[in-house]
Design a protein that fits this description.
Layout lengths: L1 H20 L1 H29 L8 H18 L3 E2 L8 E2 L3 H11 L1 H19 L6 H23 L3 H34 L4 H5 L10 H36 L1 H10 L1
Antiparallel strand pairs: 1-2
Helix pairs in contact: 1-5, 2-5, 2-6, 3-4, 3-5, 4-5, 4-6, 4-9, 5-6, 6-7, 7-9
Amino acid sequence: MKALFEKIVANFVELGNNISQNVGYLAGFLGIIAGVFLVAFVLEKLAQKKRGVKEKIFTTRKIAMIGMFSAIAAVIMLFEIPLGFAPPFYKLDFSELPILIGTFAFGPVAGVMMEFLKIVLKLLIKGTSTAFIGELANFTVGCSFIVTASVIYDFKRTKKNAIWACIGGTIVLTVFGTALNAIYLLPAFAILFHKTVDDLLAMSPLLETNNIIVFVIVCVAPLNIIKGVANSVLTMLVYKPLSPIIKGTDRAKKKDKKG
C-alpha cells in the first residue's frame, strides 16, 4: 500500500512537470474535452425529448456509479494486449467495456465523464510517456465509440436498437480512429520520439510500406474493429442482467413488493 502511494505521488509530481512543459497542448486538450461534453449534453437532451422523458443529467446514484465504472476502466486500461499484425506501440485494451455499460445505463454525458475520469486515474497511477498525446487519442477515440452508441440507443431503448447502436459505434470508432492516426497521431508521435513517420511505418510486422494510408488501413483499422466488436458483444451479453442493479430499479421493485 505504501509503495502504491509513493508511486502515485511520484506520478503526480511527474504529471505536474509534464503539465508545466506542455501548457498550450494541455489547454487544447481541455478545450476538446469541453467540446465533447457539450455535444454529448445536447444530444442527450434531444434523445430525452424524443422519448418524452425529462431526467437529470447527474444524480447522486449516477455520480457514484460513474466513479465506480471509471475506476474499473482505469484498472482495465493498465492491461494491454499486443497484436501480431500491428507495431508494438499499438495495443488492445478493454477499458471501454465498463464505460459502454455505464453509458447505456446513464447516457452519453455520463459516458464522456467516465472517459475523462479514466484518463485522469490512469495518469495518476501510471503517468504519461507521450506528453498527453496518447491520452488525448484514447479519450477522443473512446468518446467517438461510446457517444455514438449511447446516443443511438438513447433515442430508442430496445434490444434491437442496442445492437444497431453498437454497430454504429464500431463503424464511427473505426473510421474516426483510423483517420486520427493518419492525420494526427503518427506525425505527432514521430515528432515526440524524434523519428520520421516512415520510421514508425517500418515497425509494422505485416507489410513494408511508406504509404500512411495503406498502413492505417492494414494495421489500425483492424485493431479498432476488434476493439469495437469485442466491447459491443460483451456489453450485449452482460448489460441486460446488470441494468436493474446499476440503475437501482431492482431494489425499488423489491421495496414495492414488500410495501
